Amino acid sequence: MKASFAFVSLTLVFAAFSAFGAASGASADVRGIAQAVDDHYNRLRSLQAEFTELYRGNGMDRSESGTVWLKKPRKMRWEYRSPKEKLFLSDGQNAWFYVPGERQVRKEPFKKLEDLRSPLGLLLGRTKLEKELRGLSVALDVAPLAPRDVVLRGVPRGIEDRVRAILLEVTPEDRIARIILEGVDDATTEYRFSDEQENVPLANQRFEFEPPAGVETIEGDLGQ
User: Fold this and answer.
1) What is the CATH number of the domain that holds 14?
2) Does the pLDDT value for residue 135 go beyond 80?
C-alpha cells in the first residue's frame, strides 16, 4: 500500500460551533474559522501531541497510536508505539521510514514526499486553509467528536488524484482535533490528536536519523 494511506502526517484542520445559521451565515463562519486556525498555527514554533491513526478500506480496519512532534521548518517525528513500533521522520530535507528490527530503512527527499502526513508540517509554516482546500465548507452531515467543535470539508490541492476530500475538526480554541482523509478508492485515514503542547523546546537532534549498523538505506518512494 502506498504511504498516501499508510499514514499521515499534514495538512490541515478543524472545527468549532454549537449551531449553524443560514447558508450565507455558514459561509462567513467558514472564513472566520479558517482565519482563526491560520492565525493559531502560524504563530507556533513547535507542537507535540498524542495521536491515534485509524485506517479503513481495502478490506482492512487498522488502529495505531503514538506521539508526534512538529517543528519549523518542515521537521516532523512520528513515533508509533501501538500495536508495533515504527518511525516516520523528516529533518526538513529528507524523510525516513523505519521499523525497528528490519534490515532496511526508506528515505526520500522531503520535496518529493507524497506521504499524507507531510501536509501536517505545513501547519507550522505559513498556513492558509482557504488556499490549501478548494470549496471549503461546513460539513453538516458529519458529527464532531465534541459538541462545540465544527467539522469543515474541502478538496486538497495537488493530491486530488488520491484524496477526494479532507474533513477538518476544529475546536473552540482553534486547535486541530481530527483530520479525516477520504481517498478516491473509498478508503479513509483518520487522525485524532490529544494532549497537545505548543511551543515546547525541541532540539534539532530529535529530527535526525542515523541508520543502525547493518541496516540498508533504500532511496525512493516511501510506500508501505
Assistant:
1) 2.50.20.10
2) yes
Q: Establish if 9 belongs to a structural domain.
A: yes
- DSSP for 158-193 reads T-TTTEEEEEEEE-TTS-EEEEEEEETTS-EEEEEE
| Domain membership flag for residue 44 | yes
How many folded domains does the chain comprise?
A: 1
| Residues spanned by the domain of 128 | 3-219
Bond into 201 cis (ω within 30): no
* Rounded Cα–Cα distance for residues 117 and 87 (Å): 12
Range name among 81-85, 154-158, 189-193 with the lowest pLDDT average:
154-158
Say which amino acid occupies 34: A
- Mean predicted confidence (pLDDT) in 95-103: 93
pLDDT digits (tens, 9 = 90+) for 213-223: 999 999 876 65
**What's the whole-number mean pLDDT along residues 131-138?**
90
* Contact by Cβ (8 Å): 171, 15: yes
Residue 219: how many other CB atoms lie within 10 Å: 11
- Nearest-10 Cα torsion for 155, 191, 114, 83: -150
Tell me, yes or no, whether 224 lies in a domain. Answer: no
How many other CB atoms are found less than 10 A from the CB of residue 171? Answer: 22
